[in-house]
Amino acid sequence: MLTMEQIYSIKNLVEKKGYSLRKTAKITGHDFKTVKKYVEKDDWNLKPNIRKKRGSKLDKFKPII
Q1: What single-letter DSSP state applies at residue 32?
Q2: What region does 49 belong to: left with phi over 0, alpha with psi -120 to 50, or beta?
Q3: Which candidate in 2, 13, 29, 60 could, as Cys together with 24 as Cys, close a disulfide (CB 3.0–4.6 Å)?
Q4: pLDDT for 6-31, tens place per residue?
């Protein structure tokens, strides 16, 4: 994961200076996909992992038990 300073640097190169994603990747030394990910990311809040509630293996046998 990149530091916020690195992320701001990447966003600055692409959005304010108008560099392409490839050129920004070459300048910063990061992979193209990494640069693309951080340029496209708008929401920096972590989303909680929500799990589905699963039933027990015994649920279908509870009427019998």
Answers
A1: H
A2: beta
A3: 13
A4: 999 999 999 999 999 999 999 999 99
